[in-house]
Amino acid sequence: MKGKKGAAILTEMMNKKPVGFEVVIGSLTPSNTRKYTLTNRLWEGDRPLYGISYNFIDPNFFNRFATVGGNRVTVYQCLEEGRIAHLQSYVDSDKDESFYTVTWSCNLEGKPLLVAGGVNGVIRVIDVENEKIHKSIVGHGNSINEIRTQMLKPQLVLSASKDESVRLWNVQTGICILIFAGSGGHRNEVLSVDFHPSDQYRIASCGMDNTVKIWSMKDFWNYVEESFTWTDLPSKFPTKFVQFPLYIAKAHTNYVDCNRWIGDLILSKSVQNEMVLWEPILKDQQPGEGSVDILQKYPVPDCDMWFIKFSCDFFYNAAAIGNKDGKVFVWDLLSSPPVLIMRLPRGTNSTIRQTAISFNGKTILSCSDDGLICRWDEATS
User: Fold this and answer.
1) How many CA atoms lie within 13 A of 330 on its CB side?
2) Exposed (0-12), middle (13-18) or buried (19+): which is 238, by Cβ within 10 Å?
3) Exposed / middle / buried, residue 132 (Cβ in 10 Å: 0-12, 13-18, 19+)
4) Local confidence band at 13 (pLDDT 50, 70, 90 cut-offs)
5) CA nearest 125: which of 154, 165, 84, 164?
6) What is the pLDDT of residues 22-78, one digit of tens each?
7) If I label 241, which of 77, 89, 133, 295 is the partner at 20 to 30 A Cα–Cα?
8) What are phi and psi of 5, to 5 degrees?
9) Could you give the angle at the alpha carbon of 194 between the alpha carbons of 121 and 109, nearest 5°?
10) Which residues have CB under 8 Å from 96's CB, separation 6+?
């Protein structure tokens, strides 16, 4: 079960906090309890890199990662002694495509797939083993800002779009199962989305309307199951609209461009130089009503611009986030007050758009506007 170890410890720790306690803010003085060294800087090309993602789907490929930038999706492998091997690249036929996001998935046989999207609003599903397009999926009416994989059912992915919607897809069949939009939906670009790590029905989304929304798929799960056995054209599938979220939160007062479930808690980032850990408190009487119990804040200096996304290791023990000056901050997610593990040695002076932490947390990657991939490895002594 993804992330149960770290998330369970953190949730238990937060549950012991007394009611009405003050929000705990982390110190920017690093503890250096774990030390990372810069081991590689790889220039991919003269284009910004917006997304980077490790493969957490298949244990045989935990050392593989993918990047996106321009009209290119590239697969690499982390080798010993900080080396990075280029394995393959997919170049989109549309030279004006600009991919913003990539996630790993797999088909029903367990073979790896890459799912990417960007400015054109088209989802490209790439068969990594055979180095060809598995499916091209059209549905969004504008650019795609993030795609995330359901770890419990890796053929399911969520996409967050500028068209103010979130969509649930089955990449095995190319079917759009659910559209989260309408009366209770987002009122501006949706920038980030995430599956709950253990509750298969629950998702969270956030965006330029300054809100985080929690949605449930429970009442529509029969359509999810039907998407795996559907034999007719994907366009004939009875796609359903989910118009009302379970919960709407305003944990921030500006754009929210990244949110991740940490157990039943949510870690989210806005353009206000911090990540915030909070508990959504749902009210029973009416869907959409609820309150926010902010637990901890993790300062991130010079991070007051949108589309800078943090990452966590598989077990949610740590989070890494970059800023617009090329600095990366690694926070311990299991401590209260929050502890800054380390400010990584600088690998670039450019804006870091996304980080990726390896399965075991020993390697950290970043991608940035100058086309650089930076790699840091935990020091062994």
Assistant:
1) 30
2) exposed
3) exposed
4) low
5) 154
6) 899 999 999 999 999 999 999 999 999 999 999 999 999 999 999 999 999 999 999
7) 133
8) -60, -65
9) 80
10) 71, 119, 120
Residue with tokens 């369970």: 8
* 263 backbone dihedrals φ, ψ, rounded to 5°: 65, -125
Question: What is the CB neighbour count within 10 angstroms for residue 237?
Answer: 18
- Identity of residue 22: E
Average pLDDT, the chain: 94
CA 310 – CA 260 distance, rounded (Å) = 9
Q: Which residues contact 38 (CB under 8 A, 6 or more apart)?
A: 344, 345, 346, 347, 374, 375, 376
Task: From 137, 121, 244, 224, select the one nearest 180 (Cα to Cα).
Answer: 244
User: In angstroms, rounded to a whole number, what is the distance separating the alpha carbons of residues 156 and 311?
Assistant: 20
* Helix H or strand E encompassing 248: strand 247-249
**Angle 197-199-203 from CA coordinates, rounded to 5°:** 75
Please state the pTM of the whole predicted model. 0.94
Rounded CA separation 294/273 (Å):
16
Q: Which amino acid is at 318?
A: A
- pLDDT greater than 90 at residue 284: no
Q: Give me 120's structure tokens.
A: 């054109």
CA-CA distance, 238 to 66, in Å (whole number)? 33
